[in-house]
Model the fold of this input.
Amino acid sequence: MTPGLFGIGTFRNLWRSLNIHLLMHRRVVNGFVLAEKIQALKEIVEYDRRNSVAINLENLSETAEDFDPVINEVPGLGLTLDVGHANLNGSINKSISIIEKFGKLIRHVHLHDNRGGQSLVNEKIMRKTFHSRGDCRSRTT
Done:
């Protein structure tokens, strides 16, 4: 009997990268909650490392500095940069500072504008920042 279209083997072959939304903003997350999130991420990253799945923490409204504790404590964790999320809770898009600090850890990018055409960061500026750091494998056009 075959496991069917949605058998676990099917998903194991499809899942090579998993994005996790887990707010790390210092205004909200600290102390016990931060320690629990870090421990959970360590366990997820270790389990998925053995199964050839890359785990990426996606920014929500955090600054680059908000990621310091988790990046320092969870080896093997990557990042998903969501440019639209980087517009949240502030007048400055935090994408460039995240790229500058953690560019080598960014494995996936969600490039969209959540301000109705009034984006605070330009796609060409982002590509230039990635390329200047040697972190981007795509071609700038």
Q: What stands out?
A: The first strand starts at residue 17 and ends at 21. Residues 16-133 form a domain with the TIM Barrel fold (CATH 3.20.20.150). Residues 84 and 112 are 5 Å apart (CA to CA).
